[in-house]
Task: structure prediction
Amino acid sequence: MNVFYVGDSNISLARSTDSGASYRTSTVSNAVALQARPTHYRASVYPAVGVDSRNNLYVAWADGRNTGSGNDILFSRSTNSGLSWSAPVVLNTDASSADQLMPALAVGKDGSVSVAWLDNRNDSANYSYNVYMTRSSDGVSFGANTRVTNVASNPDNDPRTQGSMIGDYFAIGAGDSTTNVFWTDTRNNNEDIYTAAVPFNVNN
Result:
């Protein structure tokens, strides 16, 4: 049993191998609070996690450590059941100060790792978002960032909630030949749930 949680300045794992009778803790990474954003929807450094059939563990989270580069999506993995973790790497490859937030992570039965997130790189005001993703066939090297959405969403387009919980409904699933991404979309001036199937050969 693996329980991931955010402390004052880190992401940690509590792992039990005896059905919860006892736990061993380890630190995945230090975590830096998100930088100030022009948008007002809630966002956090809460991790998105996955495990493969070999018990390798994968974690992605939004992090504010890279001052001047906006909030980024970081990734780390463990190949020894959480005893140690790889140095975090940034998954988004934009060269701007745009925010990347709300990661979702899925591990396929073939061991591939896919991560999708909310991404403001296409809006110079750092406000309206698209969804981007990247995929790794081995959990180590990731392919190019792929834009999933074909229309950007303004988080304030819903007159009822003004996008306060816009990222609560982001998710991703790994199929046999596609990665299926789900997100909140406001192109119709309300909050709709959209999905897209991205073939593996688009993002390797």
In short: Residues 2-202 form one domain. The mean pLDDT is 92. DSSP finds no helices and 14 strands in the chain.
